[in-house]
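Quick entry between incubations.
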Amino acid sequence: MLEPPVVIAVALLYLGLLFAVAWWGDKRADQGRSIIASPTIYALSMAVYCTTWTFYGSVGRAAVSGIGFLPVYLGPTLVMALGWIVLLKMIRIVKANRITSIADFISSRYGKSHGLGGLVTIIAVVGIIPYISLQLKAVSNTVSLLLSYPEIVMPHRSATMSVGADISFYIALILAAFTIVFGTRHLDATERHEGMVAAIALESVVKLVAFMAVGVFVTYGIYNGFGDIFDHVEAHDELRRLLTAIPSGAGYTGWFSLIVLSGLAILFLPRQFQVAVVENVNEAHLKRAAWMFPLYLLLINVFVLPIAVGGQLHFAGQGVDADTFVLTLPMSQRQEGLTLLVFIGGLSSATGMVIVETIALSTMVCNDLVMPMLLRHKRAALAESKDLSGLLLGIRRGAIVVILLLGYLYFRLAGEAYALVAIGLISFSAVAQFAPALIGGMYWRGGTRGGALAGLSAGFAVWAYTLLLPSFAKSGWLPGDFLAQGFFGVDLLRPQQLFGLTGIDEISHCLFWSFLANIGAYVGVSLLRPPMVAEATQATLFVDALSDPGQGGAILWRGRAQVSDLQELVGRFLGPTRAQAAFAAFARRHGRDGNSTPEADAKLVQFAESLLAGAIGSASARVMVASVAKEEPLSIEEVMHILDEASQLRTYSRELERKSRELTAATLELQEANERLQELDRVKDDIMSSVTHELRTPLTSIRAFSELLRDDPKMHLADRERFLGLIVSEAERLTRLINQTLDLAKIESGRADWNGCELDLKEVVEQSIAATSQLVREKEAHVEVDLPDNLPLILADRDRLIQVMLNLLSNAVKFLTPGSGRIRVTLSRRDDGLEVSVADNGPGIRPEDQQLVFEKFRQVGDTMTAKPSGTGLGLPISRRIVEHFGGQLWVESVPGEGATFRFTLPFAPAQPPADASPAA
Amino acid sequence: MSKKILIADDEQNIVISIEFLLRREGFEVLVAGDGEEALARVRAEKPDLVLLDVMMPKMNGFDVCQALRADPELSATRILMLTAKGRDTEVSKGLGLGADGYMTKPFSTKELLAEVRKLLET
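Done. Structure below.
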């Protein structure tokens, strides 16, 4: 099944499937039912990072340097896990400013500069071309390998082979055609391609499945698992050295450089910027991507070492390129289905990269390179054309073809001299040059257009000199002696030992010198002069992107423009119908009738500019809008004033928000305090009502008896004496009530006097029993005691404790049946203190009443007997006294069998022995 | 025939004083110590007037009053509420439940007698 027609048919079918997915995704997006609004799809689309470099090259790298393939995955993992906040800020900035590419981003940041956008575009195109050539090399290698199946013949290409006979040329053309159909079917103001993202996500799944299938096949099909493979390694000297080699000093430098480069690449490669930033649907998706994308990287790397080692063992001495092991291992085992799957997986990793990368690059070429030139030189011609959207698409399509052909050219010139990974790293080093201007622009207000231009140029020049030119020289297209002797024979200018720097690999060497030049020039030139108006404005928008979400910033525009002019201008680039719709939507959003005001305000001008920016880049958009709007230039003072006002407004509004938050909090507190007060008031009311009730009751008897006595002088002596006795006892009750109410109030308010001293509890209990002996005798009750000697002392107020004991004892007596009552008083030692219990054999207390008896004025009587005498305050007071000294008072009771009141008191704190001198 | 009055109160001494007062004036006096007993004795003995304390065990005066007024056979029975809780809300609550009069403790014996006579005459 590996005959050429079958292979080609399957490949074309697969591309057709991708196209169908993309078409469907775009259709759904037009209907407003996005299929990519999922964090998983977002994370998978990020995996466009894994190209044929990963799919074929990792194994090749591992075969040469063991775990040396890993750092390019550690960098992205670290950035996603720790640096996602940078990505978030980029997403915010891009959305707020309708930025469509990394060139647009940098140009926009430094005052919408044409020159800067162009430079970034050139760097990106030149830098990425080796990377595209890498994909061509991988795909054409695999195709020629398959064509010679079942033999395994390493592809050979002589530089003299004619272009017409070279399959990679046709592959480049097919990819170009495919990309054109894919990415430039129509022009989108936001440059978002939902269908493309869906297809890319699908490709990420396919390549992961294919790679893991080979991994499983090699590990478990050819060998017997990981253990078996590494046993083979042990037996093989060369492989053992490879896998156990610990990076030397230079090795560490290399690792560090690769981690830095790949970490920057995940942010700044045009295709990564496209999928991670421009195509981001919802910034919340970043959260899942932050772990899911690293997980993807981990999965696709699990089987790299087994395949590399398996290939080395299997093809030992046969001259098979390690970069092809992923394909040649299944081929050698005649696994035709798996071989085809691998081929499709490799095709996925190549097409995914090429499509997104060239779409991103073509947008940049169109918006930041060609359009500005047309605007400068063919302004008049542009002005005549009614609809330019066709021209824009044409430019982009042309750019795609040119970029892929340049990739092919580089492949012909330099492709043979390098392994896949080495080519990729040249590209990584190029895009890393964006870091200073871009990251600096996001976090430093002082960066200027001049600084960015200088830094990018310097870094790019050093990169070209130390990496790009040597790659040509090594392939024999440039005289090789300048590598060994330096330009003009100057030793210090040797490209890969610049100024005598030796001992590190070429990538670290380039990274060191290019960053030194880049950062030095960026910072140095930026510091030469303060930022100008446009730069300062944009700096504010970019640097404050996270702190002012959703705020477009101050509108720095003053002038006159006609709505109709603006709409016509936008219509020329986007098509008249879409312009009409966009303007109508804007009018609706701002509650205006689109036709009522012919004069456009600053907001509408800005809106038109941002619409155009999506199609032709922010710098060109600014020029185009300026052509129809009469802008009155603002002086730097005015701009600073507006910015000041805006920032003051922000400060005020923040201040207001803070004040309002404080007010809300204060209101809440007041409400709570008020509720507490009302609650206290209710409690007080209840208590007052209870107290008055308790006072009125004895007063009622006293008054009634007194009036009876007064009104009836001839009353019987017996009645008279009886009534007088009742008056006296009611008066006593009244006195007791008043005293206890005051006592309780004092305790509750914390104003009671406490005379704490060390006490022998046994003595207190005995004294209390003696004081109640009269009451006990009256009821003919019997008191048992169990009071052990020599118990530790406790710390309490003697009179108060006697008060508690008297209360408990008299309560017990009160409920006893006359004649058969028994009271048992015990004192015992517990872990942390002493416990006193007073048990009676009275009627007991129902479970539901056992808490109530400790509430004020709650007398729980056995309703069969008369209402208990007393104030209803004795137990509440007793409980508070015990609690004051750190103890507890509670009741246990079984109705019908009596009640036992118990309280505990903690031991007095340990005292130093009496004869010891007091501690200092 | 002398009028029959039931005193319902759980305070022993108050009962003693009112009982003495009313007997001296020639009324027939019955006594109940809690709400349930009061209700039972009213139904059994059909007194002309009930002096009803509010705060009583088992069943409070308001509930007793409501139960009495729900019984058509007892519609002739007058009810005088006596309470130590003198707040307006309680006065109106008692009257709302169908009590014929309301006195706040402590009261003057003369006023009590006047109120009792007034309620028994109408």
